[in-house]
Structure formats: C-alpha cells, structure tokens
Amino acid sequence: MSVENAPVVDVDEAAIPVEKKMYYRFESNDKKEFRVSELAIQQSETLNRLVEAMGYTSEDVENKPAIAIENIDGKTLKLVFQWCEHHKGEAIPVDDGSVPKIVEIPEFDAKLMDIDNGLLFKLIWAADYLNIVQLLNVSCKKVANMAQGKTPAQLRRVYLLPSDEEDEAAKRAAQEAQDPRAREVEEEFEERKRQGGNSFF
Amino acid sequence: MLAQPTWQGIPVEVKKDIVELLDYKSRFRLRVCSKIDKALVDGSPFHISQILFHVTDPFAYCFLLVTNQGIEVRITTNAVEHFVNIFMQKRSVVAEVKIVCSAQSWLINRTKEVDTPLIRLIDMIELLGPNFKTRTRKIDLFIRGMEEYYYLEVLQLFDPKFLESITLSRGISRGTLEKMTEFDVWKSAKELHSQFVQNISVDWILHMEKIVVFFEKITGKDVDKLIKSFITRKDIERGFGFQLRHGNTLSLRKIPCLNELNKDRRRTRRNYVYYTQHFPTTNKELFFFVKISNQTITGSACCASNYIEDFYSCHPRYHGPVLDIRECDQRQRTFFKQGHIVCAERRQRVREQAVFDNYGDYSQYGSYSIRPVNFTEKKDVVNKHSEPAAQAIPFNPDASLYIPSSPSAV
C-alpha cells in the first residue's frame, strides 16, 4: 500500500501546533498502514524504544518501508493509535502497588471501547504487547466492570470461559496431538495404581 | 503469536490486573467458574479502599463491609474468615480498616469465656502465626465500654511497617493510651486523629507528622515542646503539623517560644481573637505557622513565600477571611484592650462541663487484666472451652458469597 492511500488516524487539527512534527508509519499484520505522531508514540513504551533505536529522520520515515507490527491486526491497531493520539503528551502513570488502584474511564475512552468483547480482548492484548500503561488500565477496568452483578454462569458467557470439563478435554486433545502414546501410558499408570503397585517401573 | 479474542487469550499478568480491579463479589463469582480461574483469583492480591468490621451483637452477629472500586459489599456470614482471607495475600493493600465494636461492653468479657466475633478475629490471627500481617495504611478504632484491653489487642494485629494513621473514635483512659504507646505500631505511626477527649501526654506523640487531638489538659510547656519538635525536625515537609483542642484554659504567656520570638501578633475578627506566629524551620523553604485561638492551637508547615495562604489551604475547615495585620491591629484596638493576650476564656467553663460529663471515668469499674498478644509461638487451643480455631472455623469464605445462577438469568 502506498503512502498516499494509507488510512490516517483522525487527529484534531486545531490541537497541532504550527511547528513541523514527525509522523511515523506503522503497518499491521493485515497490511494496513497508519501515520502516528511522535508525541503519541511516547504513550507506548515498546514503540518509543523501537523508534529511538531506529533513529529515523523525517526523510527516512517517508522513504523507508513502514514499521511492521505483525502481532496486531488493523482494526485493533487503529483503536490503539486513536487512543494514543487523544492522550498524547499525558503523563504515564506509575503503579508501585502501595495504594489501591482507582481507575476511572474517561468519556473518550468509554466511547472508544464501546466495541464487542472479542475486539476488547484484542485491544487489551495489544495494549499489553505495546506496553501502553494507561490504555491497559482503562481496558482492564472496562472488562472488570463487565463482571459487575453477573452470576458465574453469566460470567462464563461474557468472558467466554471454558468449564473444567472443557479445559480438561482441550488439555487431553493437545497432549494427544503432541504424543499419541501419552494417553496409553497414562491409562497404564492409572491401572497399576489401582492395583496397588508402588512403582510404575 | 496472535491475540485470541477471549479471556483465555490474554496473558496471566493482565488477568491478574483485571482480577484486582474486580469488585469484591465478582472476584468470588469468577473464582467458581473454573479451576484455572480459582487459582488466578487466589493468587491475586486484594486492592481495597475500606474494610469495616462491625460487631453489633457480642455473641454472634457481626458484619464486614468491604468497599472496593466504589462498590460496598456487606458480608454477614463468615465475616471473620473474610477479613483474614483478604490479608492472606501478601501483596494485598487495604487503605483503611475500621473496627467498630458497639456491643454492650459488660457482655464482651474474656473472663466469661464467650467466643465473640472480635475475640475470634484476634485468636484466628494469632493462630496464623507471626508471618501473617494485617497490612493497612489507616486504622479507625471504636471499641465501646470499659474492656479497653481490646484496643491493645487489636492494635497489635497491624503491621507497623505499613500503618501510617491511627484514629481513635472514642475516649480512652490514660493507662490504656500509655500502654498503646509502647507498641511498634504506635511508634511508627505518622498520624493520630481523635476528635474525642483524650488524657494524653505530648511526649507520646512528638514523633508524629500530623496530629489532630482533643487534649483533656495541655500546658504552655507542652505546646512549646510540640512546636519545637516540628521546627527542629530534619525531615519536615509541607503539611506537617497539628491541630489541638484543649479542655483547659491556656495563657499565651505560658508558652515560652511565643514570648521569645514574637511580642504582638494578635488578630481579631469581630469578637473572635487569635494569635499567629511563624517560625523558621530546618527547611529554608518552609515556615511553621502557628495559630492559637480560644478553641484550638493549630500549627502547620507552609511554603515560606506565601505561608498565610498556604496555611489556610492546609486547613480548609476555616472559611473566614485572611486579614491583613494592619487591619487586625485597628480592629483589635476597637474591641480589645492593649496588652490583653490571654486566649478567650468565657466559653471555656461551659465547654469543659459539657464535654467531661459524657466522658466516662473508667477507673470506677476497677482494674482489668491486660492480655498481650503473643505472636512468637503458635497455639493449638484458643481457650480451654473452645475448639481449636482451625477445626472450629471452616475456612471457606466462598460459601457466603457464592450465588448459584438461576436458569432464567442466563
């Protein structure tokens, strides 16, 4: 995808000062390209370190290929960069664990996270991967709020939680796929145990 | 690895963050969803704003009010177990713990061997051994009646490394207070709050950073000692200070440091007279500003550049105007005679009478035994008439909070 055709994240034009700023280009795993300001990138510790290590000039940004983020799809990355642009320049919170964490979801973030559960979990994963502390806090809070007043059965449905039986079946299937003999050995072990043998061998 | 759009797809550390943000009830409901989530919830510390342990009936009834993420949960069964369970996690943080025992005091008597909730809580924590720590920043104690040794026992339950503030919501006898000052919890506390009359010595609170106390009696030398302790301490910061109310008449002439440094800084506002003075501190950027009125003595470390404004911002209760000294002097001449520097006395007698009538004299009930809490060795039996706590109390806090889902709800 060329630079001209790349979807650009909505940025409040009035908020941008007159001086020239550098915009980095990033590419998601489904080849969608985004232009993000240098200040917005500072919200992500991972990306900030990456661009610092690369040491790109403004010519490099235009001429070299976009920085690929292979673990995150375009839809999620768009949300992430929208959040970063809105909160650029804000202080990054430091949690030392000494006081109970009180997280409040701002109005913009609440609107941004008004999405389906699948995308919300992807957003959390992306915020964790890119190390965006405040986005991770608000998205975790959003997920925590979803649990309020729910019964365990409702929670299973909201969080798509597998039951113990499903967990064990999945574990067994994974084990069998890895080693077909493992189940036979396990059954043999159980049989010997029932017979009262002290040792398998 | 690509993100899986489910709960299972997110990293365990993030799941723990989410569990810490859950309200108290939701934690327990997530806990019973599956074995994996049970382990996750059990391994995540609690981050709780406030816990209220309230004993209303001496024999059985008590409840625990847990406020977390702005949501209050009232637990009436297994309250003691829930209290202990919160602190079982080593990294659990509770901002404030309130212990209110409003049951009739003569019924809560250890000598009668009645297993009350408060005794059960103390015994259970004792049983868990020295490694168990009740970590909180602030405690608020309201224990009614003459069984004051509960203050001593309860105070020993808290970890002195974490505790910063002690609030006494009831008047305590001098003997009990003196014993409380011997504990590490008291020695390491940075704040003391008590709106109730306390027969307390200034020497017991000189190490604290913020003091709000109603003294039964205070002398000029005590005030002097307190002011000097603040202006000479090396670690003084903005906001350090005290607000003392006193039940006796206090003459400014008897406060040596005031007479040494400042001769005439009286201010008036209508019929209200107060005396202010600022002292230099070890930090050049801070002044220690003292205001003495007919009701209270207030001192606070304020920014040197604008110490008067800063003082009133530290004490927002005062809503009156900050008067200019010249203006004050003019008003002073109008309403008060020159050289009359005694704090207002006329309301003092009425106040003293009103307060001390309600304040019980604990000595009339005779002496009581102090039972120090022993953390050094574990006990097998709580007392000779009760079963061992581990057997008597099923440690299953989940039982009270688990609510089975109805088919219609899903």
Automatic annotation (TrEMBL), chain A:
Q: Which InterPro entries match?
A: SKP1, SKP1-like, SKP1-like_dim_sf, SKP1/BTB/POZ_sf, Skp1_comp_dimer, Skp1_comp_POZ
What superkingdom heads the lineage?
A: Eukaryota
- One Gene Ontology biological process: ubiquitin-dependent protein catabolic process
**Mind telling me which Gene3D superfamilies this protein's record contains?**
Potassium Channel Kv1.1, Chain A
Q: In which pathway does it act?
A: Protein modification; protein ubiquitination
Cited function:
Probable essential component of SCF (SKP1-CUL1-F-box protein) E3 ubiquitin-protein ligase complexes, which mediate the ubiquitination and subsequent proteasomal degradation of target proteins. Regulates cell proliferation during embryonic and larval development.
Family assignment?
Answer: Belongs to the SKP1 family.
Q: What protein name applies here?
A: Skp1-related protein
UniProtKB/TrEMBL annotation, chain B:
What sequence ranges are listed for the domain DUF38? 143-237
* Gene Ontology biological process terms from the UniProt entry: innate immune response
Taking the record's annotation, the residue ranges forming a coiled coil are none
Q: Which residues form the F-box domain?
A: 7-48
Q: Which PANTHER family match?
A: DUF38 DOMAIN-CONTAINING PROTEIN (PTHR23015:SF24), UNCHARACTERIZED C.ELEGANS PROTEIN (PTHR23015)
The identity of this protein, by name, is F-box domain-containing protein
